[in-house]
Here is the input.
Amino acid sequence: MAATANGPVTPGELPGLFDALQCYDRVYLAVSGGVDSTALMHLAVAWQRQGHRSVAIAVLSVDHGLRPEARREAEAVAEAARELGLPAEILTCKGLPPRTAIQASARDMRFAALCAAVRRSPGRSALVLAHHRDDVAETVLMRLSRGAGVDGLS
Here is the structure.
């Protein structure tokens, strides 16, 4: 069973969960291999199998090159996607690794690579990302530890 911000999602509720995506020709899932994006991938496949085959679903994973194991992790995501019957592409970020604000720079690099891939796609395309509640809590704690005020937490 999966969950949204509104609580648990049962397999019978999957069509409603992804209804907003039905107007797209292709939906790209940004999958890092973490529990949140892996769950998104499985939910999207279940939704597609429930009769939404007109929307093509593909997986994008990013190797930003900041850690030695990043490529291996991206390859594992691509293999998991293919096992589910989804095409997968590994995007590689180019350029020098940042020396400061590494997490923020890595996030910016990932989003730039993901958005560029979606823009290259013909037709109407969407990019879907997944985050779980712990991600949000972690972000708030990181910003508080850096002295962010109310505006910085928004």
Q: What stands out?
A: Helices lie at 14-17, 35-49, 70-83, 102-120, 133-145, 150-153. The mean pLDDT is 81. The first strand starts at residue 2 and ends at 4.
